[in-house]
Amino acid sequence: MEASAEPEQVAAEGETGRHRRDAEVEFARIVAFSDGVFAIAITLLVLPLDIPKHTQDLAAAVWELDDDIFAYVVSFAVIGKYWLSHHRFYGTLERFDNTLMGLNLFYLAWVVLVPFTSEMLGRFSEDSTSTVAYAAVMAAASGTFVIQIAYAYRRGLMKPEAREAQQRFAGPANLLYTAIFLLSVPVAFASTWVAQGMWLAVFLVGRRAVNWIVERSEPPREEA
């Protein structure tokens, strides 16, 4: 009986991906590769912060970097948050499959574009094109991460005890960021500063907004 049940068990596991315990090295390589991409992307953000070697007025030269510094701070905060969310998400996974690996690569493809759009934003902060490009990349990164979470949830790849928290908070949080970045695109054509202010606002009050949305969307608990 035990031997005959083994193929059925293997087939069932194959339908929901490989268990991270049984493919520990492969899973670790996925996480390590992702961490490497984040590390490189966040390091590249500092490259536009350059002061000419023979500058006569150092204070003035630093002051002229205000737009580049703003882009650096915002992008560092964004990539840092993306990395924390990615780290927590992969910590909740019990299984993984090739589709999830592909979705992760698609997500990272947008993350590595952040330094490029960040440099555009620093150099051409008053040009709506740079603001739109930056917002579009951020929206794509947040959106593709939501897709990863949704796929893992529906395929049962998460640990049972983590499913509810990911569904209640991680999904709505990233959807909120995606929505704000998308909404800032048409706003940028009217005012780049207002659009950029929307990005700052969502990072300052985003968590509280998500908690408020989750609380309002939950059905009232029945008293015993």
Strand order of the largest sheet: 1-2
**What order do the helices and strands follow?**
HEHHHEHHHHH
Chain-averaged pLDDT: 81
The CA-CA distance between the termini, in Å, is 46 Å
Shape: globular
Say how many strands there are.
Answer: 2
- The value of Rg in angstroms is 21 Å
Q: Your description of this structure?
A:
By secondary structure, the chain is mainly alpha-helical. It has one domain (2-217). Helices cover 79% and strands 2% of the residues. The chain has helices spanning 2-15, 24-44, 58-63, 66-92, 98-111, 114-123, 128-154, 160-190, 192-217, and strands at 18-19, 95-96. Helix 2 packs parallel to helix 5 (98-111) and helix 7 (128-154) packs antiparallel against helix 8. It is globular, with a radius of gyration of 21 Å.
